[in-house]
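Example 430, ligand carboxymethyl coenzyme *A.
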Amino acid sequence: MTNKKAKLSLSEQGTDIELPIYSGTIGPDVVDVGSLTSQNLFTYDPGFVSTASCESQITYIDGEKGILLHRGYPIDQLAESSNYLETCYLLLYGELPSSEEYEKFVSVIQNHTMVHEQIRTFFNGFRRDAHPMAVMCGVVGALSAFYHDSLDISNERHREIAAYRLVAKIPTIAAMCYKFSTGQPFMYPDNRLSYSENFLHMMFGTPCEPSKISPTLAKAMDRIFLLHADHEQNASTSTVRLAGSSGANPFACIAAGIVALWGPSHGGANEAVLEMLQEIGDVSRIDEYVARAKDKEDPFRLMGFGHRVYKNFDPRAKVMKESADEVLQELGIENDPLLAIAKRLEEIALEDDYFISKKLYPNVDFYSGIILKAIGIPTSMFTVIFAVGRTVGWIAHWNEMISGNYRIGRPRQLYTGHAQRDFVPMKKRS
Ligand code: CMC
């Protein structure tokens, strides 16, 4: 809270309304418009471009400077020196763990990796060719039907156990979605492995032989999870908060987040990047697609470019690009035709006036798509993997909201439909 005030002058009434201004630790001040409703006024901000929907202490983004901080720590330092589970602890508890706290956390997560055996039977209700995100929405939403002992949202311990369960079981469910689509047996988690090794084991292992997991690929996978762990009040996190504000249980709220993530403007972009590269098909056709992306009459956009918040560069993309280079080198993939298209698109976006003037840089999904393809993960699983990494962010935001003062989220509207009119009986309608 500051002493600063904003004044809103209403020209018709000739009156002024004083609105309080709050300052955060860093970032823009916010004007509290909550009292406007008593003046019969609402604010109008489609897409929430200028609206802070809540107070939060988890993640800070400065889109102009390309800064992303989790609990104050820069994303590049976390990607370089931490790992996914340590970052999960940081997001959930607010501080980096001591070595004992870290060991205990890892062991608790490992102890929750299995899913209830009956969940396996759920899969049989889906078509084999169902999109894995469709299966994820259903199965994650159904978790609340299995874990009744962690559904009391007013109980701090219940919320903590729900967080453990979600972080631990999401990779198991994600890998089951993949195995179901291929017809291979589901793999049980192996708790001797790290989080990302275990995921690769459940994805690519079979009961017939021991899994061989490349440390480079496991490190890249861990980085993908870490770089997607949280991103402030994006569409899916805001959806989780909105669903949670009605008192819905955490499993249902995370299922809502998965749904919101699915779209190509958000988490679906990594899948859309690969589909776009496949559609372009050859370097010789790039100019045609770049021209389409610039054409206002054509809805086509270059997937993996641009961001609502980052208008300089996406700091996650920088680190992800390093991992992409490492993975491609390890796998000896240098002459892949799709990769050649991706590299040329990247060059164009960095030197072409249209992309520079609109501040459209390659985003995190541009590079994560390339890595996931190289690892051998099918395109339809890309957004599922984003959901695995983001689950901890969703649950941290949900928990922050539930443990503080919150009200049900209930936006208002600018109504432009009919004013009141009388019902016309069917016979009298022309
Ligand atoms: N290709 C071509 N033109 C673009 C693109 C693009 N990828 N993105 C934005 N523009 C243009 C857009 O046409 C508009 O031009 P004009 O001002 O002449 O009308 C201008 O740039 C601003 O676009 P906007 O739609 O108002 O920007 P936004 O902030 O509402 O949208 C976005 C952000 C990410 C949805 C958009 O850039 C986009 O659709 N990108 C492709 C999808 C994508 O890669 N999404 C993943 C985002 S990162 C993962 C995550 O955090 O979820």
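Summary: The beta strands are 5-10, 15-22, 30-31, 59-62, 67-70, 73-74.
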